Amino acid sequence: MSEAQSVPPSDTEFEDGIVEERLRRLWARRRGFWGALAAVDHKVIGRRYIATAFVFLGLGGLLALAMRLQLAAPEARFIDADRYNQIFTMHGTTMMFLFAVPVMEAMAVYLVPLMVGTRNIAFPRLNAFSYWTYVLGGILLWVAFALDVGPDVGWFAYVPLAGPEFSPGKRADIWAQMITFTEIAALSVAVGIVVTVFKQRAPGMTLDRIPLFVWAMLVMAFLVIMAMPAIMLASTTLILDRLVETQFYNPAEGGDSLLWQHLFWFFGHPEVYIIFLPAVGMVSTILPTFCGRPVFGYLALVMAMIATGVLSFGLWVHHMFTVGLPRLGESFFTASSMSIAIPAGIQIFCWLATLWDGRPRFQTPLLFIIGFIITFVMGGLTGVMVASVPLDTQVHDSYFVIAHFHYVLIGGAVFPLLGAIYYWFPKFTGRMMSERAGKWAFGLIFVGFHMTFFPMHMLGLMGMPRRVYTYQPEMPWGNINLFVSLSSLILASGFLLFFIDVVRSYRRGEEAGDNPWGASTLEWAIASPPPPYNFRRIPVVESREPLWDCGETLPVASGLRLDRRELIVTSVVQGLPEAREASPQECIWPFWAALATAFLLIWSIFSPWAVVWGSIPAAAALIAWFWPKGTPEDEG
Amino acid sequence: MKRWLLLSLPLLILAGCQSSQSALETHGPSARHLGDLIWLFSGVATVIWLLVVLVMLVALARLPKHAAEGRAERDARMKPVVIAAVIATAVIVTGLTVASYFTTRAIGEPREAVLDITVRGQQWWWQFLYSDPGAGGFETANELHVPVGKPVRLRLESPDVIHSFWVPSLAGKMDLIPGRTNVLTIRADRPGVYRGQCAEFCGIQHGHMSLFVIAEPVEKYEAWAALQRSAAAVPDDADALAGRTVFLSKPCAACHTVRGTEAKGKTGPDLTHVGGRGTIAAGTLDNTRGGMAAWIADPQTVKPGNNMPLVTLAPEELRQISAYMESLK
């Protein structure tokens, strides 16, 4: 009798209403300031992450406008050389490290647990730690910029220019240390995503039923895990060269200035796909919804994403085609760089086939996908051009390359991202964004983008190098530059409209309902915005498009406890239930740990002793974080 | 009349601008091969892009009739088309890879060159060291004279940070990397001035680091080289002579060399024949007496952050020193 009483309450015994009530209490978020700092809900962290990343997008965009102001006329003196060099470095660094990569991870943090049908991301506290580290790194960079010690050595900080001899002062250290923050943040999220996808999928979600968005995020997370160590090594050795006079990059002392480029681009090229693959996932998920049919070539798309991920590690040298390579190396890296066009082609053709057979609904998310295809294909084709070693010797480090990578990054990643925001905004907030404003925003951004960036191809071929703070009046570039600068205002107005629409819709948008687009994936099976526990009962997946194939009611699994936060662990391949696993409660220690880490990292810009003394508070915070607290979640 | 003048102004400016810095205006074999490759790739890319956009527009516009057959059958019908497109992609990128390979081969290994010049990129100017075992070497800055039609081998080095030598009308770019020597062979087909610019970000004045390749007929080049080999003449003009004294007594000589005087500084450009150059400060100012005076009077305003310090001079001294610089033909 006493044994029966000790059995914890399970959701099998209760009706839906009671289960919901108990889950609501169990998963309730803590209120107030300290409660906000202690949040571990992937949706709360994800939303903050996305919002913060978009703030950095806005800041990076303002820097771009400042550069366009300075370049609107030859030998202009709106911005001096020193400030301009900080601005372009900040623009690149902000966009790559504080916007593009984090925003893609943030979308994964919010959506992956919903799409695989679980209640929280794996390692939610690590996830919270990641967010705080990221924010603190961003603040470090921008405060430094405001104090006129912003980095001025370019977002790839080539040595020896970024080394101790040619960049005295703390500017390059700020850059290198900001990289450390984002490395930690990115790795922390990536492991959470991998484990969530591998072990927390809803029962029945076999590998070939995983939504393509989730596949994309899985490949992205693996790229992060494998690429980040290279940049970690690079930034750490740079800091060592600067702080304690090691000579990794000093050729006069047996170091090598090219070593930096190899390490940086071994990370830097996969980085491009860390940004692009999530966009592939978004397109592959949004397109079926607006075409009213599953995506064509699911398996081919998965394989293409994996192939892209693998290949992305074999072509870093194409950023270094002008350093003087051996002939065989040239041919190898030309071939490997071009070969990535094949998986990219597979993706494009599968999407075209989906469109061909579908009945498109022309709503804002689809418009961004159409804009994406038009723009990204161009960026991909100029990518084939820069992949050719001889051709690249003319366009490398010129405005042609600026045009190319903005086509790929804005066209290839930001367009799908904006489409994704329009698409998932109702899930995030429970409200729709405005279709009318969305169409205008798309139009302005699409037209403004092409008017801004297409002429840059010409500028590059006409010999204008990148990263120059001005150019001479006798060069034939003035008119094109003025045109580009004016066009950038159109692009900026489109983004402004988008931001206004986001704020307005968040306050007063139309109520969305659970599944406003009639989509097929699991996140649309629950309320908008989702309750803290996501799913009242964990769904059981029987097909690739669960909501299209099961009608209104999904089959569910039960047997989870109602006295502690719990979710189901399943097998990697088959998605068979294996165990019930506790999911952690709110905890303030990830915040303190991030703060202590930031303290250590920032102090170490000034003194190597920071690594010794600064590790004490960091260790203390980690010990407090992992100390068993006797909650039900701590049970085995 | 006035209107006519206004209309022709752009033409006049174009005519005045003899130097070209465009990858599409090619004046040497290397740039010509690269130009052909650029057009080939651009053409192929344009065709592919148009095809993709066309297919997409048709896909968006058409109304598929689904009644007759199931999705599986429709997908099965699309499958061969998609596979064919993927194969076509593979064939095209293979073709373009082969085209690249042949372009590299056509540009070729550095052949026997008639002239070896060491190019040292420095923050933020170009140093050219002409070595000629027979006649003796000499040094100049920012203007690279070469004989027309002859292959010239450039040995690219850097004493400070990474720079990149890019004269688009003649050849693709090549980096100058501390601790390494890269070799680039250039050849100009016809006489002319070909502008180039540093293409790798190298610090605060990366934007003002231009150079000019001046290709001349062999006799003219030889005459120029002979003049460069000679030491600086003592000026006969009184102002210039006074300027010489000022130059040698002020800190100028600590950084600059004027061969034939005690000025043997190695930090800045060799000024032995600076009066013969078209521009100063790596293409920043025209080399007129006024331009030179403006530069010496306040180098940090003209080119902020560059390594030339402000040397306080009386107005008279400034005038004299500018005259001296002008006399160093």
How would you characterize this protein structure?
The complex is a heterodimer of chains A (636) and B (329). Chain A contains 21 helices and 4 strands. By secondary structure, chain A is mainly alpha-helical. Chain A has one domain: Cytochrome C Oxidase, Chain A. In chain A, the strands form 2 sheets. In chain A, strands 1-2 form a two-stranded antiparallel ribbon. A two-stranded antiparallel sheet of chain A has the order 3-4. The radius of gyration of chain A is 25 Å and the shape is globular. Chain B contains 9 helices and 12 strands. In chain B, the strands form 3 sheets. A 5-stranded mixed sheet of chain B has the order 3-2-1-5-8. In chain B, strand 6 and strand 7 form a beta hairpin. Chain B is elongated and about 100 Å long.
Could you tell me how far the N terminus lies from the C terminus of chain B, measured between alpha carbons in angstroms?
40 Å
By secondary-structure content and strand pairing, the structural class of chain B works out as alpha+beta
CATH topology of the largest domain in chain B: Immunoglobulin-like
Oligomer: heterodimer
CATH class of chain A: Mainly Alpha
Number of strands of chain B: 12
Shape label of chain B: elongated
